[in-house]
Every structure is written in C-alpha cells, then in structure tokens.
C-alpha cells in the first residue's frame, strides 16, 4: 500500500472531514500513541498505520478496504491483531 492509497481509503471509509480529523488527532495506542500523520511521517508503513487505525476504530474487514480495493499483504513480522 502506498501512502496515496492510505489517504484515498481514509476518505472513502471515514469521509473527507472526519478522516482527516482522525488522522491528525487520534492517538494510536499500538503505535506508541502517535497519530496516523505522525506515524507516516516517522516512516511507518501505510498498511500498518491503516490496520491499526481501523482496529482502534472497530472498522470491520468488510468495510476496511472500501469498494474497489484489495487488501495488500502485511509487512513481515506484523500481525493484524
């Protein structure tokens, strides 16, 4: 997953305004309390940030990847839950 895809999914799943707010303000406990914006800036893989955000916001797998997306593979050594 590329960062561009992260932002597209964020808007598709959460909506433009709410998604941007979540990315900027929601601390992600599994990423040391960083927000999605901070985690991406720190070099965390977008797929990891997306899964952590969706897990924390209780987004089911059926909605997590939007309408036209296929779940990309997770990085080696990272589990979804």
TrEMBL record:
This is Cytosolic protein. It comes from the Bacteria. Pfam families: DUF3046.
């Amino acid at each position: 997953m590329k960062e561009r895809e992260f932002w597209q999914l964020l808007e598709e799943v959460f909506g433009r305004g709410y998604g941007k707010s979540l990315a900027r303000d929601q601390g992600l406990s599994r990423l040391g309390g960083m927000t999605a914006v901070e985690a991406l800036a720190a070099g965390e893989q977008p797929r990891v940030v997306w899964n952590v955000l969706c897990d924390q916001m209780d987004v089911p797998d059926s909605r997590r990847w939007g309408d036209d997306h296929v779940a990309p593979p997770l990085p080696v050594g990272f589990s979804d839950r």
